[in-house]
Amino acid sequence: MIRNSYFINIIRFVLLILVQVLVFNKLNFFGYINPMVYILFLYWYPIKEKRQLFLLLSFLLGFLIDLFSDTVAIHAAATVTIAYLRPTIMRFCFGVNYEFQNFKLTNTTKAQQITFLTLLIIIHHLVFFTLEIFSFENTLLILKKVLTISIATLILCLLLSSLFSVKKE
Amino acid sequence: MRQIINFVLRYKNFLLYLFLLIIALALTVQSHSYHRSKYFNSSNWLTGNIYETTSNITTYFGLGEENKKLVEENKRLRNLLFNQKKEDSLLLDTTNITYKVIASQVIKNSYSLPRNYITIKKGSAQGIKPDMGVITANGILGIVENTSKNFATVQSILNTKSRINAKIKNTNHYGSLIWDTKDYNTVQLADIERLVPVKIGDTIVTGASSSIFPENIPIGVIRNFDLNNSQSSYSIDIKLFNNMAAVKSIYIIENIQREEIIELEAKTNNDSQ
């Protein structure tokens, strides 16, 4: 069972990178909207795993995306930030429930899941576009990009997560 | 001592996060101000090969259109060739050649970021070096920034770091080409003085004071212009001839005399100090 979960995570890691750089980075909807679906890795990642490994994996994920899209380390900074904040966000979304041993993402309500995903996406995009544009003169531009691209990312992440969700029996 | 160890143990997650974040921020900030890191770009072996494989598949879908573009370009060049008046054998002498052209293809294009980079096939093994000019059949595209053995990354003109010398065609009014990140088909021409007569529809070409591009390579036409707040120079919007969202076949230009020019300029600077 444990080996199985490692295997799934490795497959997810590779597939999400490929899908991100080969499909979604080339979307350029309205000229600038490229949803960042690789955030789903952090959404799906097991809760009970070691945090240090999770942080390192998130950094690696962001950094590989950076390599492909020539953004040096902006994706890495944004991804490692949401990886660090994930327990806090989970406590906020699911209450104390998530500390229990038998907690599973599929057992929570749809609204809780969407809040969790939305918070991950918004924090990620805020860090990402602040670093990308890198000047406070353009605060409006940053906010506009964060808002529109967050919506696009959220929609696509929800679609993908419902497509690949584990069926309840 | 024990307290320090306890502190580290208690905050190990936070310290690890801080460590990773600082690495990322340092790399990013450094890339904003200096020449980009040599290693962390998409010309490396892994990303280059993945992009090449996918581009090999996807180019099949655009072959017809690509063909049409190339025939169009051939037609234009043949027109120039047939109507050339002087037949001078001196022109064919290889020692007189200043520019060498290498053909290549784009394997990854990007135009939605503030700092866009394009990845191309061919690298140092095929004679590509940093600071060579890159053009398409329609106009300029950018400057080679990093090379690996078989791939190279090109700093697109759609990059806030890009500064290319440009002028209004048939005049000697120079400015530099910049990009305000708003629209991927529009770039800006800065530093044109207010005394210069500017008209909408004027063609903008590359200038002569660049050692990277030959003179008179087309860039675009003036879409609109207005005087700056300082009232001393125009800010001009230029509609590009290139469709930056669909570039495929490209030419890389090597200026054979570039090293000599740079050496001479460096020497002059040293002497004058």
Automatic annotation (TrEMBL), chain A:
Keyword entries, A-Z: Cell membrane, Cell shape, Membrane, Transmembrane, Transmembrane helix
Keyword Cell membrane appears in the UniProt entry: yes
Any one biological process term the GO annotation gives: regulation of cell shape
Bilayer topology term: Multi-pass membrane protein
Any one of the GO CC terms: plasma membrane
Main location: membrane
InterPro entries: Cell_shape_determining_MreD
Listed transmembrane segments: 6-24, 29-47, 53-85, 114-134, 146-166
Keyword Transport part of the UniProt annotation: no
Annotated family: Belongs to the MreD family.
Protein name, entry field: Rod shape-determining protein MreD
UniProtKB/TrEMBL annotation, chain B:
Pfam families, per the entry: MreC
Gene3D superfamilies the UniProt entry points to: Rod shape-determining protein MreC, domain 1, Rod shape-determining protein MreC, domain 2
GO BP of this protein: regulation of cell shape
InterPro entries: Cell/Rod_1 (IPR042177), Cell/Rod_MreC_2 (IPR042175), MreC (IPR007221), MreC_beta-barrel_core (IPR055342)
Signal peptide: none
Lineage: Bacteria, Pseudomonadati, Bacteroidota, Flavobacteriia, Flavobacteriales
Keywords assigned: Cell shape
GO cellular component: plasma membrane
Rod shape-determining protein MreC beta-barrel core domain sequence ranges: 106-254
Protein name (database record): Cell shape-determining protein MreC
Family: Belongs to the MreC family.
Protein source organism: Arenibacter troitsensis
